[in-house]
Amino acid sequence: MMLFGVFMSYKAWGLYTNCESPLVVVLSESMEPAFARGDILFLSNPKKPIEIGEICVFKIPGRDIPIVHRVIDRHDSSSTGSQLLLTKGDNNNVDDRGLYQELHSNRGKMWIEPKDIVGRVQGFLPYLGMFTIFMTDYPMLKYALLGAVGVIVFLYE
Predict the structure, then answer these.
(1) Of 28, 69, 76, 105, which is the active-site residue?
(2) Is 76 among the residues known to form the active site?
(3) pTM of the predicted model, to two decimals?
(4) What are the backbone dihedrals phi and psi of residue 117, each rounded to the nearest 5 degrees, phi first?
């Protein structure tokens, strides 16, 4: 019942923030010094246009893991009202155009669109996501913790 409550709270928070994933963990050093590996980011998805300098989390089709990078350039189309965005990690030497081309079926793609944005960073908790990273990097740890929880539930029921 407790797990159901946590899940429903997470989903309600997602509805409130207009974001399918209101929490993400930074998995690489590409955004240092702004965010370190293991930081938990709080996301929202306001309806206003994305500004240069905002830190966004975006997904590219064909890649499961979202990317956290800063918007460094944008092009607005006054006729259609659409935006095209260019991103870059603060700790990276080059922008993400190579990444867009590599992962899209359209090899000429040089920008992402707002539909690719999962959310915009509103706040963070430093290093609290390291637990998630350890669980991913060391699967035996995950199984040991699940087994320990199972034993505790069995013994205290």
Answers:
(1) 69
(2) no
(3) 0.81
(4) -80, 125
Among residues 78, 96, 104, 105, the one annotated as catalytic is 96
Question: What dihedral do alpha carbons 106, 109, 115, 119 form, nearest 10°?
Answer: 120
Catalytic: which of 30, 44, 82, 137? Answer: 30
Share in percent of the chain as helix, strand, coil (round to 5): 35, 25, 45
Domain ranges of the chain: 2-126, 129-157
Q: Is 69 a catalytic site residue?
A: yes
Residue count of the chain = 157
Rounded-to-integer distance, Cα 64 and Cα 58, Å: 11
**Closest CA relative to residue 68, chosen from 79, 55, 77:** 55
pLDDT digits (tens, 9 = 90+) for 106-157: 556 788 888 889 999 999 999 999 988 988 888 899 899 889 988 998 888 6
Model confidence over 79-89: pLDDT tens digits? 777 889 999 99
Domain 2-126 has CATH 2.10.109.10: yes
Active-site annotation holds for 64:
no
Q: Are 118 and 87 in contact (CB under 8 A)?
A: no
